[in-house]
Amino acid sequence: MMRSPGRVVMHRCSVAGVQATAADTARSFGRHSHDTFGVGLVWRGAQRSASGRGPVQARAGDIITVNPGEVHDGSPFDERGRGWRMLYLDPRLIYEVASELGAPLPTAVELEQPVLRDDALALCFGRAFAAAIGATDGFDDALARETSFYALMAQLVRRHATVRLHLPTAKPIGGIGSLIQRAKARIDDDPSEAVTLSGLAAEAGLSRFQFLRGFARDTGLPPHAYLIQRRISLACRLIAQGQPLVDAAMGAGFADQSHMTRAFVRAFGVTPAHYAAAVRR
């Protein structure tokens, strides 16, 4: 277990496809997203945030959730801060559970509410979090760990998710949205590439003003913030693969390692070194 300033802790987790984070801090987090599903429990204080599913106010005892790619932020109600624990789940884990519960394939899953008051789910979460960090006797057994995570994910899918057939997205026929998607795809395909506002706007066939306004509307972030978020996600993958931090920074398109570190701390409250210590086995 590694600690970072601000009392944000990313635990080393032995469960494949799962990250476990705990925080007790008055830090405010800027707008960011994750490539994973997130489910957590506020155990102290209260937090307000903006999410793709509306404004959020979560208090002690509440379950909080986030969908992959959902832009959100977070700040405490007051200077006393708040404490929460969070599990980030590889989407494939959720999709597999949804399939086992009878959902059609390929499946699209969306957690419906950003804040839940569900005592049974909170109990499942507590068991799964303990299993993730090895904090409770009995979870050194692979079967016990797997059972606790399955119970949590099954509760989420059955009671708090929209599950539907995921159909291939038809290519849009014209419109600013389709032009924005073209520029967004360029960033997604290679976040390390150096791009300019003028270049992205020109590729979309829009003025810079039209592009900025349309991009923020469609993605929830201005282009530069979206690019940094995609670079953070790429850096996470490179670090998990064992690349040295300086190489991961350069490979993800950051100017240098310190630039990557600042981006990590603003978004997640932990440094790349803490992230590396938690995800490398």
**Share in β-strands:** 15-25%
CATH superfamily of the largest domain: Regulatory protein AraC
Level-2 CATH architecture of the largest domain: Sandwich
Roughly how many Å is the radius of gyration? 19 Å
SSE ordering: EEEEEEEEEHEEHHEHHHHHHH
Got a strand count?
12
Structural category: alpha+beta
- Main sheet summary: 10 strands, antiparallel
Q: Low-confidence stretches at least 5 residues in length (pLDDT < 50)?
A: 169-174
Query: What is the CATH topology classification name of the largest domain?
Result: Jelly Rolls
- The number of helical runs is 10
**Percent range of helical residues:** 40-55%
Under the CATH scheme, which class of the largest domain?
Mainly Beta
Mean of pLDDT = 87
- Structural domains: how many: 2
What best-fitting shape do the alpha-carbon axes yield?
globular
- Measured distance between first and last alpha carbons: 12 Å
